[in-house]
Design brief:
Blueprint lengths: L3 H27 L6 H8 L3 H7 L3 H5 L3 H13 L7 H16 L5 H9 L1 H26 L6 H19 L3 H18 L4
């Protein structure tokens, strides 16, 4: 028997990826500000309502992997092996994010983001949301209140580590340098 829900999910994922790929291509070819939602929908051969069922805004088209990055950070906390130290698990995840965002071909996308106030603002709000999700995962993992200052602080440090390293001349070394400070901060808490 065929799996209709599996096929439906694959088709939705393929449509989402097609829309994102089309949008990014158009944004890089014509400029972010010069391309409208209708342009993306027409080029991807989908209705505007279909586009909005996959992406909440024009800015979200640029940050298509946002949800996956956020989930990866949460999984780095929640899915680590019993006894596996927390900070090295987060360091490993941030290294993966930085490698992705500094890969060959990523520079034009980051140049576009830096040139657009709307994209810079969206990226900042996205990072704050990631920090909140990570802080909640840390609090859950440690069995402390979600408003724990230690969890919220470490989460923001981790998100900032990613942002600082992405912009550094030697991103991998920058991740390690920032995480040495995070490790020291974590050890200074009652939770570390």
């Amino acid at each position: 028997m065929n799996d209709p829900s599996g096929r439906r999910e694959r088709k939705k994922a393929a449509t989402r990826q097609k829309i994102a790929d089309t949008a990014l291509r158009l944004f890089l070819e014509r400029g972010y500000e010069a391309v409208g939602i209708r342009d993306v929908a027409a080029e991807a051969d989908v209705a505007v309502t279909t586009l909005f069922s996959h992406f909440a805004s024009k800015e979200a088209l640029v940050f298509e992997q946002d949800r996956g990055f956020e989930q990866g950070l949460v999984r780095a906390v929640a899915d680590r092996a019993p006894g596996e130290p927390l900070i090295p698990a987060l360091r490993s995840e941030v290294h993966a994010l930085v490698r992705h965002c500094t890969a060959p071909g990523a520079a034009p996308v980051w140049n576009m983001i830096e040139a657009s106030p709307a994209l810079r603002e969206y990226e900042e709000s996205m990072r704050l949301r990631h920090a909140e999700s990570l802080a909640a995962a840390l609090a859950t993992d440690l069995g402390v209140p979600e408003a724990s200052i230690a969890c919220r602080t470490i989460a923001r440090f981790v998100i900032d580590a990613y942002a600082l390293a992405r912009e550094a001349e030697e991103p991998e070394a920058a991740v390690d340098e920032v995480f040495r400070m995070i490790e020291a901060a974590w050890a200074a808490t009652d939770l570390g």
